[in-house]
Write a structure and sequence with these properties.
530 residues, mainly alpha, 0% strand, globular
Length: 530
């Protein structure tokens, strides 16, 4: 497919790589859940990791990646690859110095940071969290450089290695974390969490290192360059300022949820984190994959003044994201409890933990379509130099989430379920506002086609809901059966539901279905030729 349309072949490659990363990330979570459960220690570890992880979303994979890909792609289109690579060296030098200083400040002021992120933690729990934070904080330096390299490779249409990089983070954090944790405390008590923290650093190092050979093959040669007055550097920094909030509103809302959850005792922080991790599987596989291959195309279209291609690419990307994530949302809502039990319930992760995590997942999933469309739509504003719009909308989203958290927790007594619901509502409102503003700025985004795709996908997803509802009790009744039997039953139900969804999509002539078939046909032809 040409650049005039969404590169669905590239999206398929990225989706496969991201799927592997998300599966390994899920494996990381379930291993840690089995070893440590969902109590005080895991609450402390997850909160400690949230500090550098939030900065990763704000500065690295959020603002830095979005701003850099936009400017780098435009520099290639207007001045050629040589000028773009020189810009990359300047940004790599700046990123290394700035993030090193930020890491040092995080280590020094860890106590104050945790006092803000978890004000409800008692003294001993807070002390453990501070210790783990100081170990993991340099992770932000490693992952920021990894995100910069990812942006360079994506901008020159190299998607596979960057998408696989997160898999190496998970491999390093699992293998290194478990091994070091066992060496420190073979019983995997709270002291073993130090090993998990060190494993996180190892994973970040692998995430960066695995991309460097591909970057060299693409033609990049790093040269230390302090010429930060370059117009491209200034433009990246200017774009980053509003993107710090705009590109990471969801993560900021998750952080706000953790602050509220710190007042709810031991467990809610972990339940929300495990649920959000599982929801990120379809979000990462579909939403992020579509967004990754869309941004360089719309950036070049904007730089060349081709707004027709800009609008058609963006509209098609959002429709594809809806087609891929709406059925996933329905499935997660209906089958949350058996899915959580199958994946997490073992070792120190108990029945009650499964139930509470499933409740959070059901409410998070309500916003899945909104999450995925934000991933596609928000970066496009930077390509057309409308950087303040996403930031303004994100401020509204964060304010809405705060208000809903207060309402659901302190007035309606919904507990951690209310925190997940407020995040889903805020994400959905965020997307709707961004969509309306984009139509005012760029013109029609084929709104009738978008509404038609959403309506048809909703109808096509009805069989998923009915099949899940009809088999839910049967699957739950297998709770004490073998893992193989439970997994087989759940996968059989999901498989039948997917077949009926695809059949309904074909009958309803949903556009995304044809794109899906095109990817499958190309994969099959590739296998036949090989």
């Amino acid at each position: 497919m040409s650049e005039d349309c969404l590169n669905t072949k590239a999206a398929g490659v990225v989706a496969g790589a991201v799927m592997l990363s998300r599966v390994l990330g899920l494996a990381r979570e379930l291993i840690f859940a089995g070893l440590f459960g969902a109590g005080r220690g895991m609450d402390a570890f997850l909160t400690a990791f949230r500090a550098p992880n939030l900065l990763r979303d704000l500065f690295a994979e959020g603002a830095l990646s979005t701003a850099f890909v936009t400017v780098f792609s435009q520099r290639i289109a207007t001045d050629g690859e040589g000028a773009a690579w020189r810009l990359a060296s300047k940004m790599a030098t700046l990123t290394t110095i700035f993030m090193s200083l930020l890491s040092l400040l995080g280590v020094i002021f860890a106590a104050e940071l945790i006092g803000f992120l978890a004000p409800g933690f008692p003294a001993e729990k807070a002390a453990l969290t501070i210790q783990l934070t100081r170990i993991m904080y340099p992770f932000i330096l490693l992952v920021s450089l990894a995100a910069l390299v990812m942006g360079m490779l994506n901008a020159v249409n190299r998607f596979t290695a960057p998408a696989l990089a997160s898999s190496f983070f998970n491999i390093g954090s699992i293998a290194g974390g478990v091994a070091l944790g066992w060496l420190i405390d073979p019983a995997f008590g709270e002291r073993a969490l130090i090993g998990l923290s060190l494993g996180t650093l190892l994973g970040g190092l692998l995430q960066l290192g695995v991309q460097l050979p591909g970057l060299r093959q693409a033609g990049f040669r790093f040269v230390i360059d302090f010429n930060w007055r370059d117009p491209g550097v200034r433009r990246v920094l200017i774009l980053m300022l509003p993107a710090v909030i705009a590109a990471s509103a969801v993560q900021i809302n998750v952080m706000v949820n953790s602050i509220f959850a710190s007042y709810l005792g031991d467990g809610p922080v972990s339940w929300l984190s495990y649920a959000f991790r599982l929801m990120q599987l379809p979000l990462g596989v579909f939403g992020v994959a579509v967004a990754t291959v869309t941004l360089p195309v719309v950036s070049r279209a904007s730089a060349l003044g081709d707004m027709g291609r800009f609008r058609s690419t963006l509209a098609k990307a959002m429709r594809l994201a809806v087609f891929l994530t709406l059925p996933s949302a329905v499935g997660l809502i209906i089958l949350a409890e058996p899915i959580i039990a199958l994946i997490y319930q073992r070792g120190k992760f108990l029945d009650t933990d499964s139930l509470h995590t499933a409740e959070a997942l059901q409410f998070y999933a309500i916003g899945l379509v909104g999450y995925s469309c934000i991933k596609v739509l928000s970066p496009a504003f930077y390509a057309i130099d409308r950087k303040w719009t996403p930031m303004t909308v994100s401020f509204c989203s964060i304010g809405l989430n705060l208000g809903l958290n207060w309402l659901f927790i302190f007035k309606l007594g919904m507990g951690h379920r209310g925190l997940a619901l407020s995040t889903a509502i805020a994400a959905t409102v965020n997307f709707v506002l961004l969509y309306l503003f984009m139509t005012r700025v760029s013109g029609s985004l084929e709104s009738k086609a978008m509404a038609s795709t959403f309506g048809r996908c909703l109808i096509a997803a009805i069989p998923i809901g009915l099949i899940g509802w009809a088999t839910h009790s049967w699957i739950v009744s297998l709770g004490h059966a073998s893992v193989i039997l439970r997994a087989g039953a759940l996968f059989a139900v999901i498989g039948v539901a997917v077949v009926f969804f695809l059949l309904a999509s074909w009958m309803l002539k949903i556009e995304g279905f044809n794109e899906f078939l095109g990817i499958v046909r190309r994969k099959l032809k590739g296998r036949v030729k090989s």
